[in-house]
Amino acid sequence: MSFHIQRMPAPIRLRELIRTIRTARTQAEEREMIQKECAAIRSSFREEDNTYRCRNVAKLLYMHMLGYPAHFGQLECLKLIASQKFTDKRIGYLGAMLLLDERQDVHLLMTNCIKNDLNHSTQYVQGLALCTLGCMGSSEMCRDLAGEVEKLLKTSNSYLRKKAALCAVHVIRKVPELMEMFLPATKNLLNEKNHGVLHTSVVLLTEMCERSPDMLAHFRKLVPQLVRILKNLIMSGYSPEHDVSGISDPFLQVRILRLLRILGRNDDDSSEAMNDILAQVATNTETSKNVGNAILYETVLTIMDIKSESGLRVLAINILGRFLLNNDKNIRYVALTSLLKTVQTDHNAVQRHRSTIVDCLKDLDVSIKRRAMELSFALVNGNNIRGMMKELLYFLDSCEPEFKADCASGIFLAAEKYAPSKRWHIDTIMRVLTTAGSYVRDDAVPNLIQLITNSVEMHAYTVQRLYKAILGDYSQQPLVQVAAWCIGEYGDLLVSGQCEEEEPIQVTEDEVLDILESVLISNMSTSVTRGYALTAIMKLSTRFTCTVNRIKKVVSIYGSSIDVELQQRAVEYNALFKKYDHMRSALLERMPVMEKVTTNGPTEIVQTNGETEPAPLETKPPPSGPQPTSQANDLLDLLGGNDITPVIPTAPTSKPASAGGELLDLLGDINLTGAPAAAPAPASVPQVAQPPFLLDGLSSQPLFNDITTGIPSITAYSKNGLKIEFTFERSNTNPSVTVITIQASNSTELDMTDFVFQAAVPKTFQLQLLSPSSSVVPAFNTGTITQVIKVLNPQKQQLRMRIKLTYNHKGSAMQDLAEVNNFPPQSWQ
């Protein structure tokens, strides 16, 4: 009896599998074919079929490239790598590079095989091992095999040297501390004639220079040698082996230019050594083909990055200017991007290509348009502002919606910086609002209002232009808001027809109110716009004479509006008409000039007539005349010590405090370093990014609704009949804040006048003085002065305070200093 072992049929070849898969008409059909073939391959792997393992892994790699799972073939790849046949090793190593990475522990099993193959007698096997290690070697493998790579880097075989150089790059990236191991081997790499070795050697040197400043300094001596290689490349004749479109080895040229850029950066000698060759490359490279343009682009980047001569930089910018005329969109894009990077350092050279750059605004490609727009704004200056704005406004008219916001912002900034006249400035911003009002930033409206307010001589012209701009068109809401504000402020100038800049128009009071009322009822008007319109109508009640009754009627109607903001305004305006009519004209008087200086420095809030506008923080000398706040710096000198934080008290004012306007925010202009700071103008308060802090919005005599009482009071000062008592309250919402109320009483027979209380605390605290209730302490204890101090103590340290008292008594000026150290623990713990 004989037994026949049934063998599986031979698996189909890779070529047949590809042909079969390509016949699939649907994704499902293809998936079915793949699953069927994967099942056959799995069966073959289980059978330990060595004959067809190579063919099966090759098919598995093809399926992996199609996006199907092939991880079950990882161990088979390792078996192929261990095989002695070159064809098996080739597929095995290819599979390892595709299916394995350092995140899987399986790859560590390859280390010994790779080490053996790196010492193999056949260069092609050694090459396979180098390729695999350079592709997916982990840091552990690189440490184990770096010695073999370094040995191959010194071999005379150019085939192995180029592969070893690239493998060394991967080793350095994985284990930077092994860099010095390859330093001796790099000495003779640039003497090699083989272009492949030269190319990979330059890549290796570039990697080492980028990763180590010491290596960068060491390799700077190679600049003359690199210059010589580059010169030979551009001066050599035709070489079919390395020629690409008539240029000798452009890949090597680009690599050398990149390395020169790194070596010449911030080094005068190296930059000087490469100036001539860069000029040669820039003038001798053929630009008709993309290959030449690639070399020129790298040359330009190198010239701009090293300390090159000014003439060479102009040559580089002219090359970029020629790129702008190229038909290839990619070349135009990289030219615009490069010019944008260099415009700050070589402004005049870039300006010569302004017309070409502006022409790029008409390009159909959106990415080129955006770069051209950004570069156009960078080129705007006082000499070309009119011409450039004309082009950019034309671009704003026709550009896609996604460009309008950035373009409008750029025009606003350029106009603010370089406007030749206020009329031109106002006209330009109005043109933007008319064209792209829906896309402007939120600050465009207040900025334009501030500009108009400060241009006193342009009020009549502006209100007339704005009135005509919104006749029947309320689509551009920011424009309507500015127009409503201006009509409310300067409606009397509009009706009187006093415009001198252009022909005045005849407008009646009723026509003006018709426009504002139509804004109120328009479906296009937002809640904010309606608020502007209602306020404008209210302001006109003091500027118009014949339509006050109509204004009252409009205001009363909106007292029952479903828009809460509009309803609140109307109710308050109604109250002005009924209860406070005697104050209406004063409250609605014309806005004064708003102080605002535009710089890029820190900003503060300059307060004028209840409106706040951001303005830069500038140190101003104290105003002349007696100012309690001007003594803050004197207090520093008198109190002494570097651990004192200056505090500027809020000066008492005759008018009621507007919503928090008189309060200095604790997180605002506090000098944490203890250095003396100049006192700001009394009407200004520091701007803070946080929400209103502590008691913002209350008057100088606030009522604390969220405080904890029960802290014992202390006598801080008692001398010459003057007694100062401190009472304490702690905020529930912010436990780090202590509110101290001082009470000053006078037991002598005469009043103490011009009383000023000042205080300072160590720099770990923040302190704020509110306005005192009076400046006179009545005699015979018949009354007291109260003043509130707020102390922020985030570190819960023991509270210490130095106080300074100044007052007039019995015809003499009195002054005294004292230190308060007996604060109760409940006030600061």
Give a structural overview.
The chain is α+β, with helices and mostly antiparallel strands. It contains 32 helices and 15 strands. Strands 7, 8, 9, 10, 12 and 13 form a six-stranded antiparallel beta sheet that branches. A four-stranded antiparallel beta sheet has the order 5-11-14-15, covered by helices on one side. Helix 7 packs parallel to helix 9 (158-174) and helix 26 runs antiparallel to helix 27. The longest helix has 20 residues, at 27-46. The radius of gyration is 40 Å and the shape is elongated. Mean pLDDT is 80; it is low at 1-6 and 598-706.
Q: Could you give the topology of this structure?
A:
Blueprint: H1 14-22, H2 27-46, H3 53-65, H4 74-82, H5 86-99, H6 111-118, H7 123-136, H8 139-153, H9 158-174, H10 195-211, H11 213-219, H12 223-235, E1 243-244, E2 247-248, H13 250-264, H14 268-284, H15 290-305, H16 310-323, H17 329-342, H18 347-351, H19 354-359, H20 366-379, H21 385-398, H22 401-418, H23 422-436, H24 444-454, H25 459-469, H26 477-496, H27 509-521, H28 527-540, H29 548-557, H30 564-578, H31 581-587, E3 603-608, E4 611-616, H32 632-639, E5 644-645, E6 684-686, E7 707-708, E8 714-719, E9 722-731, E10 737-746, E11 753-762, E12 766-769, E13 785-792, E14 801-809, E15 812-820
Antiparallel strand pairs: 1-2, 3-4, 3-6, 5-11, 7-9, 8-9, 9-10, 10-13, 11-14, 12-13, 14-15
